[in-house]
Design goal:
By secondary structure, the protein is α+β, with helices and mostly antiparallel strands. Helix content is 17%, strand content 41%. Strands 1, 4, 5, 6 and 8 form a five-stranded mixed sheet that branches. Strands 2-3-7 form a three-stranded antiparallel sheet.
Length: 137
């Protein structure tokens, strides 16, 4: 008991005098290139399960007559089992700001099969896109 009180009595002044460091002004951003794949890539996998199971061998894009952007992605199942994934598309303007995000759709991929998934933007403001795939749970 006496040893504990002695340790506390010696440690208390140290914590009183160190205090909190003060900071004035704004903080600089942390490394913004880490985890920023969705801003630069047309196809991303959102979790390790999708990364292990799905690949995208090809993407086609076309501009419809009314100016809307249409995107068709071929998804391939890399495994010897049937899997279910969820896919959505984020349409972006010329400055990479989100214009529209489609809801996730369920896609069932048979063993080693390939299937196309199509997305069409709602307006003509979409210039770029990112197709996102996650494992269905």
């Amino acid at each position: 008991m006496k040893k504990t009180l002695l340790v506390l009595a010696l440690a208390a002044p140290v914590t009183l005098f160190t205090g909190c460091a003060t900071h004035q002004g704004a903080y600089p951003p942390v490394d913004t290139t880490v985890g920023n794949l969705e801003n630069n890539a047309q196809f991303v996998l959102l979790d390790p399960g999708a990364q292990r199971s799905v690949t995208c061998p090809g993407i086609q894009q076309a501009r419809l007559d009314d100016g809307r952007l249409q995107v068709l992605a071929n998804l391939r199942n890399r495994e010897n089992r049937r899997i279910q994934v969820q896919v959505d598309c984020v349409f972006k303007d010329a400055q990479d700001f989100d214009v529209e995000e489609t809801p996730f759709v369920n896609v069932f991929l048979d063993e080693n099969a390939m299937q196309g998934v199509k997305f069409v933007s709602m307006n003509d403001k979409a210039q770029r896109y990112t197709i996102r795939v996650r494992e269905a749970r």
